[in-house]
Design goal:
elongated, 63% helix, Rhopdopsin 7-helix transmembrane proteins, alpha+beta, 2 domains, 5-stranded mixed β-sheet, Heat Shock Protein 90
Length: 433
C-alpha cells in the first residue's frame, strides 16, 4: 500500500469521523431551535453525499482503458451531483445566518442551477464526458460558479445586516468560514487535484459546517446571558418597588393612627386582606392580569383617599383581557397623587384603560401643577417608580411609557402595550371598579 493510498484513506476516515461527530451533536442538541437543527442535518446529509460524489468521481475518472458507456453516464451523474450540492450547502449556511428569511431568490437560483446542469444527460450545453472519459465544459459550464459566487456575496450581506450591526465579533466565525470556501475554490481551480479523492472545497465545507455549529452555540450562549441579565434586572427592580410601595402604605396607616384610629383599624384590615390575596403576584416578575393590577391600585387609592378627603380617584375600564407586569399602574398613580393632585384643593386622578389602534392603552391623568418633562425626566433617572415601570414595560411587553405635562394644568402618563397572538388569555370583560 503506497503512501498516497494511505493518505487518501486517512482523509476519508477523518471526514467521516467529523461528520459522524457533528451528526451526533446535532441530534442530541436541545439548545438550538428545531428549524436550525433541521437545517444543520440537511447540510450534513448533503456533505455525506458530496463525499460519496468525490469518491465515485475519482474512481470513475481514473478509468482510462476499456471505457464502457455506463462509466461515462455514471461520471455525468456524479458531476451533476457535485454541481447541484455545493451551492445548495452555501444557501443553507445563509438559512442558518438568517433563519427568519425565506431566501426565495436563492432557492430560485438553486433550482435553476439544477435544471441547467441536468441538461448534461441529453446535451452538451452545460458539460459532458467524452468517449475518452475526459470532462468537457459547455457554454453554461460556469453557471454553477456564478450562482455560488452570488450566494457567497449574499451570505456576506446577511452577516453584515443580521449581526455586524449588533457587534462585529458576531461575524468572525461565519466570515472566516466564507474565506475558507473562497480559498478552497481558488486552490481547486489553480492546482491539478486528480491525485486526490477529495477536492479542497469538500474538505472546506466539512470544516465550515463545524464552525457554523460552534457559532450557533456561541449565539445561544450570548442570548442566554442577555436573558439572564434582563431577568436579574427585573428581579432587582421588583425588590426595589415592593418595599417602596409597602413603606408608603404603612406610613399612611401610621398617620391615620393619630388622626382617626378607627379608620386606621379599617385600613389595616383592608391592607392585610390585600397582602394575603396578592402577595404572590407582587413577589413574581411575571406578567399578571390587568384586573389583578387594578386591585392593587384600588386598595392603594382607597387608603390614600381615606387619608386625604380632598382626593378623588376615578376609573374607566373598557379593556380587561390582557396581561402586564405587576406594579405597573400603582406606582404611576402614586406619583400622580403625591407629586401632582395633592397640591390642589380638589385633587383628581383618572385611570382609563381602553383598546386603541391595536394597543392596550392605560392612561393616568391628574389635575396637578404639571412640570417640565425634559427636566424631570433627567432628575427621574433614579426614580424607582417611573424608571422601573418604563423598563419592565419595554422588556416584558415590548410596550412604551409616554409622559405629557402642562405646567399649571396637570400630567398625563400613557402606557401602551401592543397586542400579541396570545394576548387574550383572560376573558375580555369590563372590570367593575
Amino acid at each position: 500500500m503506497t503512501n498516497l493510498t494511505i493518505a487518501r484513506i486517512i482523509t476519508l476516515f477523518s471526514l467521516f469521523i467529523q461528520l459522524f461527530g457533528l451528526t451526533c451533536a446535532v441530534m442530541i442538541d436541545s439548545y438550538t431551535s428545531r428549524k436550525t437543527r433541521k437545517t444543520m442535518l440537511a447540510i450534513i446529509v448533503l456533505l455525506y453525499c458530496l463525499i460519496f460524489q468525490n469518491c465515485a468521481d475519482f474512481f470513475l475518472q481514473i478509468q482510462t482503458e476499456n471505457i464502457q458507456p455506463y462509466i461515462i453516464k455514471l461520471r455525468i451523474m456524479t458531476s451533476f451531483l457535485g454541481y447541484a450540492i455545493r451551492p445548495t450547502v452555501i444557501l443553507l449556511f445563509c438559512c442558518i445566518i438568517s433563519p427568519e428569511r425565506r431566501h426565495r431568490f436563492g432557492w430560485i437560483l438553486i433550482w435553476t442551477n439544477i435544471a441547467v446542469n441536468s441538461t448534461a444527460f441529453f446535451s452538451r450545453i452545460c458539460f459532458t464526458i467524452d468517449e475518452n472519459n475526459h470532462f468537457q465544459g459547455g457554454p453554461l459550464h460556469k453557471f454553477c460558479y456564478y450562482v455560488s459566487l452570488y450566494l457567497l456575496i449574499y451570505l456576506f450581506y446577511l452577516m453584515i445586516v443580521e449581526y455586524a450591526a449588533k457587534h462585529i465579533s458576531n461575524i468572525w466565525i461565519p466570515g472566516l468560514s466564507e474565506i475558507f470556501i473562497v480559498i478552497s475554490v481558488l486552490l481547486d481551480y489553480r492546482w491539478d487535484s486528480s491525485y486526490a479523492i477529495f477536492t479542497f472545497l469538500t474538505v472546506a465545507m466539512v470544516g465550515t459546517s463545524f464552525l457554523y455549529y460552534i457559532w450557533l452555540h456561541l449565539q445561544f450562549v450570548r442570548e442566554h446571558e442577555k436573558d439572564m441579565k434582563a431577568q436579574q434586572r427585573i428581579q432587582i427592580m421588583m425588590s426595589q418597588i415592593q418595599p417602596h410601595f409597602m413603606y408608603n402604605t404603612l406610613a399612611t396607616i401610621q398617620a391615620l393612627c393619630l388622626s382617626d384610629p378607627q379608620k386606621a383599624f379599617d385600613t389595616t384590615a383592608l391592607f392585610s386582606t390585600y397582602l394575603r390575596d396578592n402577595i404572590d403576584s407582587l413577589s413574581k416578575p411575571d406578567l399578571i392580569p390587568v384586573h389583578k393590577e387594578l386591585q392593587h391600585t384600588k386598595i392603594y387609592t382607597d387608603i390614600e383617599m381615606t387619608r386625604f378627603p380632598n382626593l378623588k380617584v376615578e376609573y374607566a375600564v373598557e379593556d380587561g383581557g390582557f396581561f402586564l407586569p405587576a406594579l405597573t399602574i400603582q406606582p404611576i398613580v402614586e406619583n400622580a397623587i403625591r407629586h401632582g393632585s395633592l397640591l390642589r384643593e380638589e385633587a383628581l386622578v383618572k385611570v382609563t384603560i381602553s383598546d386603541v389602534k391595536g394597543c392596550h392603552k392605560i392612561t393616568i391623568t391628574d389635575n396637578g401643577v404639571g412640570f417640565d418633562t425634559e427636566k424631570v425626566n433627567l432628575t427621574y433617572g433614579d426614580h424607582i417608580g417611573i424608571r422601573n415601570v418604563r423598563e419592565r414595560i419595554e422588556k416584558m411587553c415590548g410596550g412604551s411609557l409616554d409622559i405629557k405635562s402642562v405646567i399649571g394644568e396637570g400630567t398625563t402618563v400613557t402606557l401602551s402595550i401592543p397586542f400579541v397572538d396570545d394576548t387574550d388569555r383572560t376573558e375580555n370583560y369590563k372590570i367593575e371598579i
